[in-house]
Each structure stands twice: as C-alpha cells, then as structure tokens.
Design a protein that fits this description.
single chain, alpha/beta, 7-stranded mixed beta sheet, 7 strands
Length: about 260
C-alpha cells in the first residue's frame, strides 16, 4: 500500500510538471535570460559548441527552443561526426531543421584530431582556434557549451568545455559571454519534467533556468538521428530532465584552467 501511494504521488507530480511545461508552450514566460535592464530582449548571435551530432537534441533543446522562439540567431558548431561522416552530418541537419535552425548556421567537423571516443583527448588550444574562427566569421556575441562534467561525464564533452574556456581566457574580446549547461546528479537527471521545480529552486547568482516550451519538438529532433535512435536513447529523451529544462551558468572569464 505504501509503495502504491508513493507511485501515485510521483505520477501526480510528474503529470503536474508536464502540464506546467506544456502550458508554457501556449503562454511563453518572460525569462530574464538575455534581457537588458529595461526588461526587453537583446537579440544575440549565439554559438552552441557541442561534441557530437545529437548533443543538441539530447541536452540543449530547451535552450535552443527558447532562443529561436525569441528571435536570437543560433549557430551550432559540432566538433566530431563520430567517424561516420556524412551520415551523422545529414542527421544533424535534419534535427536542426526540426529545431528551426537554418542549415547554413550548422557546422559539423570531421577533423582527424577530434574523433569520438573515450581516451581520445582533444587539444584545447586547437579547439579554441576553431571556435575563434567561427566567432569572428559570424559576429558571435555569446557561446553556450557543456560544463566541466559534460552532463554524462563523456571526455569529449569535457574537452569541448576546456576548449571554449581556453578561447575565453585567451581572447581580447571580453564582451563575448560564455554559458555552460549545468550537470545534475543521476536522480535529477532522470526525474523528467519534475526537475523543473528543483532547477528553479537551485538557481542562484549568474544562472538561468530555461524551460522547454516545445518538448515534442525535441523528441522529433532526436528521432532524426536514426543511427543513434535505439531503445535506450528513446527512453533517455522521454525521461531525461534535459529534455524539459536547462540550467545555464555563466563562465567566469577570470577563472583559471
């Protein structure tokens, strides 16, 4: 009986949380992220730096959906194609189209020094140089990427973070902001929409909580990655908190590597 009550309670909170998220798709909230002191939106050229095709759909779709719905110009720089080149690129392009991103603003690299896999360390200086070229080519105002843990702990995610931080520390363009996706513990990670409440409560300082206003769009985007669309990733997209909410934290320019 006690287990039944616990199950029912969790189900009720889950459904209430999902209703809250779906409600936001009809009545978008006015997130303070990227607003100026007067409360109006400052349109930005944003660069999302990821490690692999499907990172954008599995982890960053709440951020992408909020930015595009508010008129920000979002670019994606994907550092690796997992060793299967054109297949993963096409999947990334199709997913990006679902997420309302122009294909000319999506770049997927197939660089010999940035191949997918554990134990393959990506050089942060080389990565920083690639980020720098993209920044200046598209007049980027802001960068978004993984934090130092990289959500799943994947070494490539962490290397991307280090490369972006290297660029931020080395560049003279101090007006460029950088934000990182905050990694959560395993309980929160698989709490689905329930994590929106925990995320709101945990935000402090230079952090922002972005609720996904189009969760079904995120699921549809991930389904475009057919080479990766196996049963456990379907479950991940359904139950991961990163489908429903992102917490972004500002990267301190003065922070030591």
């Amino acid at each position: 009986m006690e287990w039944f009550l616990i199950f029912v309670s969790v189900a009720v909170v889950w459904l209430a949380s999902l209703c809250k998220i779906l409600h936001s798709s009809f009545y978008p909230n006015q997130s303070p992220f990227l607003n100026n002191n007067a409360g109006s939106i400052q349109k930005k050229n944003v660069l999302l730096v990821i490690a692999h095709p499907d990172d954008e759909s599995m982890f960053f779709s709440p951020t992408i959906n909020q930015l595009t719905s508010r008129g920000h110009n979002v670019h994606i720089l994907c550092m690796s194609t997992d060793g299967i080149g054109d297949v993963r690129k096409e999947e990334l392009y199709r997913a990006s189209a679902i997420l309302k991103l122009p294909l000319q603003q999506v770049t997927a690299l197939d660089h010999p020094d940035f191949q997918d896999g554990f134990g393959k360390v990506w050089n942060s200086n080389k990565l920083a140089k690639i980020v720098e070229k993209k920044i200046f080519a598209h007049a980027i105002d802001m960068i978004i990427t993984f934090d130092n843990y990289g959500v799943s702990g994947h070494c490539n995610h962490r290397d991307v973070h280090q490369g972006v931080r290297r660029f931020i520390l080395d560049t003279s363009k101090r007006y460029i902001e950088a934000w990182e996706l905050v990694s959560s513990n395993i309980v929160r990670k698989y709490s689905g929409p329930i994590d929106i409440w925990l995320s709101f409560w945990s935000v402090k300082g230079e952090m922002h909580c972005l609720v996904n206003e189009h969760p079904l769009r995120s699921y549809a985007a991930m389904s475009q990655h057919l080479s990766q669309w196996v049963w456990f990733r379907k479950l991940f997209v359904s139950f991961s908190s990163y489908t429903y909410v992102n917490t972004l934290r500002k990267i301190n320019n003065g922070q030591v590597l």
